[in-house]
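debug: dumping io for the single-chain case to check the tokenizer round-trip. Nothing else runs in this session.
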Amino acid sequence: MTYEEFERRVGSIILTKGGNCPVTPVVKMLQGKWKLQIIYELCIQSPLRFGELKKALGPITNTMLTSALRELEADGLVRREQYAEIPPRVEYSLTEKGRDLLPVFHAICQWGMKYIP
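debug: decoded output
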């Protein structure tokens, strides 16, 4: 569906048959200070190890990064791959579901470039 079609039909599709807005679960999935930034970093370079992500994000705590990664993994957006090595190595990457968000991020980027100096 094109944006124009969506715009015309938005009134009729905002609520599902169950009375829920289909945007609400997406917003809940992506809400939080760090989740979008984590996804952005994994878009730029993937896979990344925990320390690499932490360094790229700056002032995030280990606890916050761990929590956000677990939530993104539970939602199926991020894949955690643990290797049986010593020392243990864990890498994070986007799943196909996570990569499907790239056009959305592109549209947000376009909007930002147009309206935010």
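debug: round-trip ok. The longest strand covers residues 78-83.
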